[in-house]
Amino acid sequence: MTSPRCLIFVPTYNENRNVERLCTELLALPLAAEILFVDDGSPDGTGETLDRFARQHPRISVIHREGKLGIGSAHQVGIAHAYDKGYDLLITLDADFSHSPSDLPRLLAAHTAGVDVVVGSRYLESDSLPGWSPQRLFLTWFGHFLTRVLLHMPHDANGALRLYDLHGIPRELFGLVTASAYGFFFESLFVLCRNGARVRQIPIVLPARVYGNSKLTVRDALRSARLLASLFVANLVTPGRFLRSRPIDKLRPELGESQGWDQYWTEKRTALGSLYDLVASAYRRVIRFNLRTFAERSFAADAKVLHAGCGSGQVDADLHGRLRVTAVDISARALSLYARNNPRASRIEQADIFDLPFEAGTFDGVYNLGVLEHFDRKQIREILGEFHRVLKPRGKLMVFWPHRRGSSVLFLGAVRRLIGLVSGTEPKFHPDEISLLGSRAEAEAHLRDSGFVLREYSFGIRDLFVQCVIVAEKVDADPTASRSFVFGRTATA
Ligand SMILES: Nc1nc2c(ncn2[C@@H]2O[C@H](COP(=O)(O)OP(=O)(O)OP(=O)(O)O)[C@@H](O)[C@H]2O)c(=O)[nH]1
Ligand SMILES: [Mg+2]
User: Fold this and answer.
1) Percent of the chain scored above 90 by pLDDT?
2) If you average pLDDT over residues 274-281, what whole number do you get?
3) SS (H, E, C) the chain
4) Which of 52, 66, 172, 338 is the 20 to 30 A CA-CA neighbour of 406?
5) What domains can you pick out in the chain, each with its CATH number?
6) Given this model, what pLDDT does residue 482 score?
7) Which of 357-361, 377-381, 417-421 has the lowest mean pLDDT?
8) Which residues line ligand 1 (CB under 6 A)?
9) Which ligand is nearest to the CA of 140?
10) Ligand nearest to the CA of 38
11) pLDDT tens-digit profile of 285-322?
C-alpha cells in the first residue's frame, strides 16, 4: 500500500523570526509531507524569507496574498489547495511554535481508520498552557467553556493544530464555514461534527509564543463571540443550515425571477428577523407534529406525494421515512434550504405551481403549508386545478391554510402595529397574505370550484389556532367537467 500524501499548512503574518526555524524543523521530521505557507503580505519580510526557503527546498511552497485577510480565510486557501492537488491528509498548525512540529508524528499516529479529524487539545492534561498571561488563560478557558456549552462540542475547538482526512470529509462542508478570522476554528469543527465527522483528540502542551506578537485583537474576540452567539441561535432555529446539502434534481433557470421569493428565503440577518425566526421555530415544533399526524391519516404508506410550494421544508423531515416526497418550489434559494433540511426527499426540483412539470395522474397525494393565502381567488383556482390534474383519481389534497382570525395572524398584526407606532414604519415579516381562510364554507367553495370534495376540516387547539387543515379528495376527472355539471343543474333547476 502506498503511504498517504500529506500536506502541512501554516498561515503566517509577521512571523519572520519564527519561520526559518520552523521550516528547518518541519523538513527534519520523518515525514515525506509537502509544506505550504500562506503569507498575507507580512510587512516584516516573512514572505521573502519563505520564498528563499521555497527556492532551496522543493517540498516548500508559498502562496502570497495582498494584505491581512484573516487566519480563517488563510486556512480555507490551504484546505482548497489540499483538495485541488489531491492530497489525502492535511495537517495545519501555527507558525509561532505554540504548536510543536514534534507533535506531528503523534497527530498522524492518532489518525486511524474511521477517524476524520484529529485535534490537538489543551484540555486533556493539566499544565498544558505554560507561560500564558492570566488574561489570555481566562480568554482561552472561557472560549472553550462557551463552545462546549453552546455548541455541544467537548473538543478543543479553538486550536489550529489539526489533521483532516480529506477522503473522509466532503469538500463542500468547508463551504458552509463563513468565518474569515479566528471563529473559523470552532465554526469548522462545529460544521464537521454536525455532519457526522469522527473527531479524535490528542493532548498537547501549548507554550506561549516566544517571538513576535499575537495577531488576536479585542475586535477578533468580539467577532468570535458574535459568531458563536449566531451559531447557537441558528442551530436552534434552522439546524439544517449546517448540513451538507443533497443535490437538487432539477433547476429550471428559464423560470426566471422567482417573484421575490428568493429574497424571502435568503437568511435574515436583522435582529427583528432573527426574533421572528426564533418564534417561528418554536411554532414549527407544533406544526411538525400536526403535519405528521394528518399526513399519516391522509396518505397511505409509501404513497407518492407532491409537496407543492415546499419552501425550506423545515417541518417535512419526519415524512420521508413513510412517504415518497417530490418537493417543488419556484425559488432556487428555497430549494437549496429544502435539500439541506430534507436529504431523504425522493426528488427536489424547481417548478411553478401554476404549471407543474408532471403528467396527469402522477401523484397519490399533494400537500402544502402556508402557500395558498398568498394568491387571489382566481389564482387559487388555477393552482388547485393543477393539483387536480397531477393527482390520481381519488388522490388526496392536504392544505395547511392560515385562518383569518388565527392566533399568529392576530399576534403578528399586533406586533407590527406596535412597532409601527414606535418607529413610524410597520415591519414586514413575510409576503402579503391576501387570501386568509375564514370558514369551512369558504374552504368548500374553493375546493368545489376545482373538482375536490372536502373530507376533513380542522381548526383548533392542536396547532394553537394558527392554521386550518383541509383534507380533500379528487372526485372527478376534470374540474371543468365538474363546473359544467354544476351549471347544467343550475340551468335546469
Ligand atoms: N495568513 C495569515 N496568517 C495569520 C493571520 N492572522 C494570524 N495568522 C497566523 O496564524 C497563526 C496564529 O496566529 P497567532 O497570532 O499566533 O494567534 P494565536 O495563536 O491565537 O495568539 P498568540 O499565540 O497569543 O499569538 C500564526 O502563524 C499567525 O502568523 C492572517 O490574517 N493571515
Ligand atoms: Mg499563537
Assistant:
1) 65
2) 74
3) CCCCCEEEEEEECCCHHHHHHHHHHHHHCCCCCEEEEEECCCCCCHHHHHHHHHHHCCCEEEEECCCCCCHHHHHHHHHHHHHHCCCCEEEECCCCCCCCHHHHHHHHHCCCCCCCEEEEECCCCCCCCCCCCHHHHHHHHHHHHHHHHHCCCCCCCCCCCEEEECCCCCCHHHHCCCCCCCHHHHHHHHHHHHCCCCEEEEECCCCCCCCCCCCCCHHHHHHHHHHHHHHHHHHHHCHHHHCCCCCCCECCHHHCCCCCHHHHHCCCCCHHHHHHHHHHHHHHHHHHHHHHHHHHHHCCCCCEEEEECCCCCCCCHHHCCCCEEEEEECCHHHHHHHHHHCCCCCEEEECECCECCCCCCCEEEEEEECCHHHCCHHHHHHHHHHHHHHEEEEEEEEEEEEECCCHHHHHHHHHHHHHHHHHCCCCCCCCCCCCCECCHHHHHHHHHHCCEEEEEEECCHHHCCCEEEEEEEECCCCHHHHHHHHHHHHHHC
4) 338
5) 6-241 (3.90.550.10), 245-492 (3.40.50.150)
6) 45
7) 417-421
8) 11-13, 15, 38-40, 68-71, 74, 94-96, 98, 209, 214-216
9) 1
10) 1
11) 788 889 999 999 999 999 999 999 999 898 998 899 89
Ligand 2 centroid – CA 93 distance (Å): 9
Q: What is the pLDDT of residues 70-113, one digit of tens each?
A: 999 999 999 999 999 999 999 999 999 999 999 999 999 999 99
| Centroid of ligand 2 to alpha carbon of 214 (angstroms) | 6
Ligand minimally distant from the alpha carbon of residue 133: 1
For the chain, the average pLDDT equals 89
Is residue 486 scored above 90 in pLDDT? Answer: no
- Count how many Cα atoms sit within 13 Å of the Cα of residue 211 in the half-sphere of its side chain: 15
- Residues contacting residue 55 through CB under 8 Å, at least 6 positions apart: none
d(Cα 390, Cα 165) in Å, to the nearest integer? 46
d(CA 49, CA 62) in angstroms, rounded, equals 10
Long-range CB contacts (< 8 A, 24+ apart) of 149-152? Answer: 150/228, 150/229, 150/231, 150/232, 151/186, 151/190, 151/228, 151/231, 151/232, 151/235
Task: Work out which ligand 1 atom sits closest to the CA atom of 13.
Answer: 29
The ligand 1 atom at the shortest distance from the C-alpha of residue 181 is 31
- pLDDT digits over 225-255, tens only? 999 999 998 888 777 778 888 889 999 988 8
The pTM (predicted TM-score) of the whole model is 0.69
Of 121-125, 221-225, 241-245, 372-376, give the lowest mean pLDDT range. 241-245
